[in-house]
Specification:
Layout (H helix, E strand, L loop, with lengths): L11 H9 L8 E4 L6 H10 L3 E5 L3 E2 L2 E2 L6 E2 L4 H12 L7 E4 L6 E2 L1 E5 L8 E2 L4 E6 L2 E5 L1
Parallel strand pairs: 1-2
Antiparallel strand pairs: 2-8, 3-4, 5-7, 6-8, 9-10, 10-11
């Protein structure tokens, strides 16, 4: 569902229902408990490989989502923050679909859906590093 439903229609409850399925992280799926420090690595790695979905606000244990994940604190500008990371840190830039779910109790989930890119490789760190996705890991490529 998260792979095909129009991104602007994905809701907080859709993510909660997805978490209950206990789908383990893999080449196409990555969970982040909070806004990650190196989000550009995962975005570039997925674009350089087969694409995928990143869900911010989901805690995981051994790659499986934890049922009581409630999301991250809702703040204005989350989508813009992701766009700025992409424009500042990924070359050439990647343009994923981004959805900040309408919040519940001031908590939200952020979904980033990245297509496999036809403009690979996408570099990060001032055009010095290329990452690819192998299983549930982002791996630097020589």
């Amino acid at each position: 569902m998260l792979y095909v439903k129009p991104i602007n229609e994905i809701t907080y409850d859709d993510i909660k229902n997805f978490i209950q399925k206990k789908i383990k992280e893999n080449t196409f799926l990555d969970y982040k408990a909070d806004f990650p420090r190196r989000l550009e690595r995962t975005i570039a790695a997925m674009a350089n490989t087969h694409g995928g979905v990143i869900i911010i606000g989901v805690k995981e244990d051994d790659g499986k989502p934890i049922s009581n994940s409630e999301g991250i604190e809702y703040k204005r500008g989350l989508e813009e923050r992701i766009t700025q990371i992409i424009l500042d840190k990924i070359y050439p830039p990647v343009f994923p679909e981004i959805q900040v779910c309408p919040p519940k109790n001031n908590k939200t989930f952020v979904i980033i859906r990245i297509a496999e890119s036809d403009s690979t490789p996408h570099w990060i760190n001032d055009k010095t590093d290329i990452y690819v996705r192998t299983g549930n890991l982002n791996r630097p490529e020589k």
